[in-house]
Specification:
The complex is a heterodimer. By secondary structure, chain A is of the alpha/beta class. Chain A is built from 7 helices and 17 strands. In chain A, helix 1 packs parallel to helix 2 and helix 1 runs parallel beside helix 7. The mean pLDDT of chain A is 96. In chain B, helix 2 crosses helix 4. The chains are: A alpha/beta, B alpha/beta. Chains A and B meet through strand 8 and helix 4 of A and helix 2 of B.
Amino acid sequence: MNERYDLVIVGAGPAGLAAAIYAARARLETLVLDESVPGGQVKTTHKVSNYPGFPEDIKGTELAKAFAAQAERFGATIRRAVEITRHDLAAVVKTFELDEEETVEARAVVVATGAKPRELGVPGESRFRGRGISYCATCDGAYFEGKDIHVVGGGNSAVEESLFLTQFAKSVTIVHQFDHFQAEASSAEEALASPKIKVIWDSEPRAFSGETALRAVTIQNVKTQERSELATDGVFVFIGLVPRADLVKGIVPLNKWGYVETGEDMSTPVPGLYVAGDLRAKQFRQITTAVSDGTIAALAAQKYLKQQKAA
Amino acid sequence: MSEHVKEITAAEFNREVKEAGEPVVLDFYSTECPPCAALAPKFEAVAEQLAGKARFIKIFRQGSRELAMSLGVTGSPTLLFFDRHGREQGERMGGEEIKRSAIKAQVEALLAAE
């Protein structure tokens, strides 16, 4: 007999865990599935400064743990490092096969699988991934103690993680495609004032080269078209995100960028299936907006389950 | 940690990996590395499934800086696969998206190649 839950939430980031807190407090049998450990992108963010309730900065890992602990306190079950090997979300009773070993059933589902770091798509990138190219400063920053490194990007992640990397690296050179940062003014000013940070504006990487490990990045100025090869010990890439929509592809409508269009209540055309957080088509992707989505999805799912019972 | 996973130091690398005489999966990990924490249970599960056929070894990056550099490892977690002759084979795996099934498939490919 398969284990059956009222609500299965896929993705233990801020959206999924906010949904879990609300669902568990409403006494729904709630299961959260994650292929990693809880926290989503927050867990690899070195510090969070704009989440209300924390007047001092909080480490991303700590915020992630706090979200998970709060959901578990109210009775939500969080399954870590679990792989969904088959699934059927279109049916009334939705099913997930986990690690090819067991199947769980859900009367309603919130998909909050979020987004993952976008790759540059430049020659040499996959060859040097883990051999000099990284997408996670908290994981890999310490490998670059005393080194000269580059960061690609100019949004919040790029600028804030560059600041974090200055505690290890001898120098951090930011390569950005525009002539100004898209990051919040407070971080941008801090980066521009840092003696360890240099910025190369209007430029994009075109190729990576090296032997066993990365040695150089070729960049091109997008205004003058001039190319130059820069020696480097490592490159961190923070150029935005791509949605993780695999689970719902084919059963709910995606916009042209691959994000899921939902109703204001996070509903999809499939009854009992909700989408929340960064995976949703929306203008702003923040921890606060993810938490809002998760809250709404859980409340909407609760209403749906009540109506199902009454019917 | 599972009894099927052994942790070594850089000094033991030659004996435990290069001269193991059987396929080895080597996991470079760090502390304060959520993707490493996520990999651990998957690594242990595969180690259990393939116990006796291949060795599953972990090495702590912070204590193995020079070895990591000599192998060109600059990220955690990084999985390296060695055949029974101690030669590195196949693609390295890294980051948060390592799947249990992918680790198993790569070790099975090493075993089949012998």
